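Sharing in case it's useful to others searching the archive later.

Someone asked me privately for the predicted structure of Sleeping Beauty transposase HTH domain-containing protein, so I'm posting the question and my answer publicly. Question first, with the sequence:
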Amino acid sequence: MVKTKELSKDTRNKIVALHQAGKTESAIANQLGVKKSTVGAMIRKWKTYKTTDNLPRSGAPRKIPPRGVRMITRTIRNVETNQCLDNMGRKENEKVGIFNCHGMGGNQVSNTKLKEEGPWK
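And my answer, the predicted structure tokens:
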């Protein structure tokens, strides 16, 4: 099967504008030179999500399970200062703090992605 070219944002917005102006799917398809099924799909997307933007796709499954990610992030600490990242009881994707490592686990866990540079291990 041949992969088709993605519609430009301008074309997608024109489809919605013509639909809201009362044109039929066939008339819109003929006017813009796209398939009627494409016009129908774009109108359904607009009615469902109120957007013509591309929606995120599911993608490939993670290579490391969530438990493995938690285990790795528990061990993030600065060996020079013996300070650890601590989520301070906050939820995932919120700001974290830096405190002395106490080795008891608990809140010293973070899903923060760090660059490989620096003294963090």
